[in-house]
Amino acid sequence: MRKHGRTVENPEDTAGVPWSMMLTHLPLAAAVVGAGGEVLAFNSLFAALFPPIAQQPHGSIAALLEPDDRVAFRTMLAETFASADTPRSMQFALSASPTSSRRWMQASACRLQPAMTGSQTALLVQFVDLTDWKQREDELMERESRWNYALVSSSSGVWDQRLDRSSMYYSDVWRKIRGLSPDDPIAGSTEEWLLLVHPDDRERVLRSIERQNAGDPDYMTFSYRERHKDGHWIWIECRGACVEWTDDGKPARIIGIDTDITERKASEEALTRMSRRLKLALEASQIGVFEADFTTGLAEWDAGMRKIFRVEGEEDIPIGEVWEKMLHPEDAKGVFERLAQHVENLAPFSDEYRIIRSDGTISYIRSRTLPFIDSDGHRKMVGANWDVTADIALRDELDKAKTQAEARSRELEIAKARIEHIALHDHLTGLPNRRYLDKRLEELAGQPRSGAAGLAILHIDLDRFKQINDTLGHSAGDAMLRRAAHVLRKQVREGDFVARIGGDEFVFLARYTGDRQNLSALADRVIQDMRKPVPYAGQECRFSASIGIACDAKGAVDPHQLLLNADIALYHAKNSGRSRHAYFTLDRHARMTDNRRLADDILRGLEQDEFLPYYQFQFDARSLDIAGAEALARWRHPERGVLTPDVFLTAAEEIGVIADIDGLILEKALIDRKRWAQDGLSTPKISVNVSSPRLHDPALKEKLDALAFEPGTVSFELLESIFLDENDKQATNNLRHLRELGIEIEIDDFGTGHASIVSLLRLNPTTLKIDRELIQEVSESRSRRDLVGSIIGIGRSLGIRVVAEGVETADQVRVLRELDCDILQGYGLAVPMAFENTAAFIQRQEWRRIDLPA
User: Fold this and answer.
1) Residue 147 lies in a domain
2) Do residues 723 and 671 share a domain?
3) What phi, psi does 321 have (nearest 5°)?
4) Which pairs with CB-CB distance under 8 Å and at least 24 residues apart come from 703-706?
5) Per residue in 125-163, pLDDT tens?
6) Residues of the domain holding 545
7) Sign (positive or negative) of CA dihedral 786, 791, 797, 799
8) Are residues 824 and 737 both part of a single domain?
């Protein structure tokens, strides 16, 4: 049906539904969308924007969108359906077609009330065409970027004077012209600044500034001398103009640029000096004027001519007897031929020749001559001669200077090329650097994508480089980097490109035709060569490489995106064991996206105080009295509930917040222990897990000093691998301080690592925790019982308490008692629980009901 020129689609499906009238009167393109994303009804404005859906009822809007926007659009619809009170909106692009270009839209969705939809669940989605606005925005950004690029690339310093605010802005180039760093102070007043202006220029500068501030166009540009920070004078050309006025017509804002014209002034001065020389030379070389009559055979010379050729007297000069005899023999023939030709044709001409004076000196003469026939029919010639000997000498000097300048210019070009090479190459390896790589990627991105050659990017990261660099020093690390660069250079083919982008990372751009086997072979060759030992300082250093590969055989992927994909692949190669290569896949990208989202959630969780301790109580093996409680980290996720460390621990380590979580759990556990004491509940000791980053934290001492607890009431649990594999000076100092504070040291999961008796003696822990894997079969397996008994015996001999983890049955309790174990912990006695559940658990004494054999 049609109302007011707008169309409501499918009237038979919407009869009686209130949205029909609503769509008709909406001022924007609008549609009613069902739960499946299908269009149930729309108005004529919508039909004009989306003709395909108007022609195909119940079509999907998402199908018309750019691929990158489809998921977001569907998500927006789903979120709007899920939240009735919260409208949603987004911008998206319609896919371009052979007959139309890309168009931008703004979509706003809200859920329709049941009164308007009957039994259906539906959304009202309204659309605004943003294409024109987007184009204007792009044009504005282009103009702004063009101005910014021009300003950055110029050598002029920008200043902005706000007379209405008494403030000034000076750009970095403005400061650089004067030798000032960003932190150097600037003159705070006109009087202070005038002390930097050359005394001869101050009065004129003040006048020029006054007129410039008044908006006088004649003073828009002026120049003066100012003292550089280093003490010498520089010439500055100041260009300024008023761009804003107050209501009463006075200048409010003046913007301008300062340009260093010192070099130009020096050039002008040099030219002025040369011009003075030329003027003096011209004045010194007096011009002589003559007129020759070939009919009479006589020439009339003025005093200047006679002075030039040193001929005395006042009588006319016979043609062929004086001037001709003074011509230099080497120039005479040419001069006579040119003279005869031009006189015959009555053509004006210029000439230059030499004469030999009576004293044997040679002078250069330049002439300008005009042949003609007078009213009497006489063939004549009038001309001017002047001695240009000095000019010739000056010309020779200028030619010499030009030759020297050209030589200097060539030297500057060579220096410029050398500087550019340095700017684009890594000084250590000689390979292109990150700047050169970005330039290369820009070039590849600028090539037409249709028919473009395939491209593969290998992102290479050296394994074990940090250990070599840290243990043998930076010189050894540099040698390994040069070796890696040599390995990569050997693999470069025509059209390939390799760069060091920083640290121990390299990028290899290779031609790719779709043959992954060749690409894998290239990566394997690089890895094999990297594994070869490198001799340094009398020993062999070994390192390898992990390689992430992203490839595109059709030129459809932007090179910058391809580099990001290779980085994602490198991440998976390193996580898969290092010293190998891995290809980018969409599945890996999705997993990395999930990890990034988890990392973001962890950071948000820390900000929102979502991490808390869960407590698993420990019991004396003989009396089953509570001997302590282990505080276990838990994450109360607002959507996923309470999460255990196996979900978030790896991501927390990658983003470097595991130590923060450890510290937070300890602080909350100490608070909870005080609350137990206030309720009359005894918990002798709190144990917390300590990660390697926290044990190696230089600030751990200060953080612990800020906490209040009694000595002997707190225990830190360390994994074997921490003190066996990563023990260093920082960790040793922190462990010493823990003992000084009365914090006990426990070795967690003992029996699953590589601990030795010597290591235990060196660390001197107070407690060993036998790993649950050894406890599981202690009541059934004689060998397992003997092994656990040996560990307990070792603890007894060293004066170390022993805690058995993973106790789940009464038989295990009995056997561990017989083996003289000190403390029991496990699900058979107590499961981890939130603080609010602990009081009731302690009061019920449920763990004492475990059915122990007689």
Assistant:
1) no
2) yes
3) -115, -25
4) 703/663, 704/737, 704/738, 704/741, 704/743, 705/741
5) 999 888 888 888 878 777 766 666 656 666 788 888 887
6) 426-584
7) negative
8) yes
